[in-house]
Amino acid sequence: MSSTPNFIELRLDAPETIEAFAKATAQEVAGNKAVVAIDFTAKWCGPCKIIGPHFKAFSEEERFKGITFFKVDVDDFAEYAQKHEIRAMPTFKFLVGGALKDELVGADKNKLEQKLAELAKLVESQSQPQPEGQAA
After folding, report:
1. I need a labelling partner for 46 at 20 to 30 A (CA). Which of 28, 92, 118, 133 fits?
2. Sign (positive/negative) of CA torsion 1, 90, 37, 122?
3. Which pLDDT value is given to residue 2?
4. Catalytic annotation on 45?
5. 63-79 burial string, b = 16+ CB within 10 Å, else e?
6. Region for residue 27 given its phi and psi (left: phi exceeds 0; alpha: psi -120 to 50; beta: otherwise)
7. Which residue ranges does the record assign to the Thioredoxin domain (predicted)?
8. pLDDT in tens, 63-109
9. What's the pTM?
10. For residue 66, what are the CA distances in angstroms to 16, 43, 57?
11. Which listed residue (48, 51, 74, 86) is catalytic?
């Protein structure tokens, strides 16, 4: 299955994936409106192996097209796991403009879908034109 434009797996041998992650999760970048879902995972984590394919499948759904999905292996990218205060796997972080909006610890597919749906509503509200005289 080919990679979708909004699903990026960080890889040590692919610096462009690391650059995309750094840019999408940076709070200090002016105008960063990125809506991001991050799966902090590990190769040895059983529950991660169960929920991981669902996370990727959600990234391919039309209703979540405004969200950029990242998969981050905590062993390969320990500095990101530390920066995002990851204590258990899987942990999902949901960011808007680099700021933490929500998180989910554990491999609950229904809760993950619910969190993504909430994020998708936020994307939709950002893309709606605001009535005259109202700020976004």
Report:
1. 118
2. positive
3. 38
4. yes
5. ebeebbbbbbbbeebee
6. alpha
7. 15-121
8. 999 999 999 999 999 999 999 999 999 999 999 988 999 999 999 99
9. 0.86
10. 20, 27, 14
11. 48
Q: Are 69 and 7 in contact (CB under 8 A)?
A: yes
Phi, psi for 37 (deg, rounded to 5): -120, 130
| Spatial separation of the C-alpha atoms in residues 44 and 78, rounded to whole Å | 15
* CB of 112 closer than 8 Å to CB of 96: no
Q: How far is CA 41 from the centre of its chain?
A: 12
Let me know: does 10 contact 70? Beta carbons within 8 Å.
yes
The pair of three-digit structure tokens given for residue 43, joined into one six-digit string: 């190769």
d(CA 115, CA 93): 10
Amino acid letter, 78: A
Say which residues have a Cβ less than 8 Å from residue 2's Cβ, sequence separation at least 6: none
Per the omega criterion (within 30 degrees of 0), is the bond before 90 cis? Answer: yes
Q: Which of 36, 37, 38, 45 is catalytic?
A: 45
Tokens of residue 88, six digits: 């258990």
- Whether the CB-CB separation of 76 and 10 falls below 8 Å is answered with yes
Rounded (10°) angle between helices 46-59 and 109-127: 30
For residue 30, pLDDT beyond 70 = no
